[in-house]
Amino acid sequence: MGSRKMLKFAFCEVVQFVGLCVPLFIIMQRFAVIVALVKTSAKPPGDGGTAYWLIVASSVAYVTSTALLVWVPLKYMVFIKKKFLVSRKEWRPVALVYVVLSTLPCFAFLIASSEVQRNNNMKHDMFMELPVSLVLFSLICMDVVERLRYCYLTGQGESSTVTTGHSDIPSTVLTHVQPVLPVTPITPAAPGPAVPGHPTVDPQYRRSPYDYAGPMSFLCVGDNRADVFVDSFMFWMDTVEMVRVAGHPQVFYSSWVFPIFILSYLSCLRVVVTPHSPLLSTLGVALQDFPFFVVRVGLVTFFGFVTPVLFLLKNLLVCMAFVYFNFMTKMRVFNTERMSLPF
Asked: Does residue 35 belong to any structural domain of this protein?
């Protein structure tokens, strides 16, 4: 048992450390190539090879120093249960440090690459696919590892909706128990008119999908550990699309690359909050949906439909729904005691 735990611990740490280092190395190497080409094509031509190896050596020094001075001490403090790091359940210190040490410099070098090429009338590398996808994929892997770290990877999982421990994954463990009253059998009443204030609910909405016992019951399976991967990728879809827009030739070699990468980085800060924190919806609107909507309106105005209208409508509807259901429904004109049936 101990050897399995150590193997799982080592695997999680290796995955996170690789995700921390590899995106930095690749993006800084591509940036070094751009600087070397600028030095070589300058008049008089400079030593492009020296500039290239200087930037590569700087990236190695940066990763080494941050790993020894920040990453490893943070991990040590987290695993020896320092109270100021693990006593609060609303934030994740490892995610915060990862976003600051890896994602921030990667986006900064993407902006610098655009500026260097634009100022020197070059169109050599737009970082279209691999570097940007690698940055966000590493961020997703870090998120998945943090959520699965305290879960068993063998055996059957749980499918309830109660959160326990640090895993942020639903389980069947009860965290708050209340007295249970005796249950009296109730005979189903005949259909009749609904009583005001007590809406009727169709029985099909009370039935759990896992209660299905028909011939296709073998398809009604679910495991929260597998759902973590789905949730993590869906959590980043809007940010991925926004960063993809920056790879468009007209956008990458323009000043619009600044707000795109800056706002995309701000949206990445949402990962610092635990997945089930009540702050997540507010941060989602403040750091992603509202600023993304403004930027997408500007992009469509200046460059045409370089971004799908679907994401533009998504940002708009999420902002409107957030304001309406959290604030406007508390106003007297909307605060009624009547409840209508669902459509």
From this structure: yes
DSSP 62-116: HHHHHIIIIIHHHHHHHHTT-HHHHS-SSB-HHHHHHIIIIIHHHHHHHHHHHHH
Q: Which domain holds residue 96?
A: 8-153+225-327
Number of domains forming the structure of the chain: 1
Q: How far apart are CA 46 and CA 18, in angstroms?
A: 34
Helix (H, G, I), strand (E, B) or coil at 163: strand
Sign of torsion over alpha carbons 96, 100, 103, 108: positive
* pLDDT digits 0-9 by tens, 63-105: 999 999 999 988 888 887 666 665 556 788 889 999 999 999 9
Q: pTM for this structure?
A: 0.76
Establish if 194 belongs to a structural domain: no
Q: Tell me, what's the pLDDT at 134?
A: 87
Residue 278: inside a domain: yes
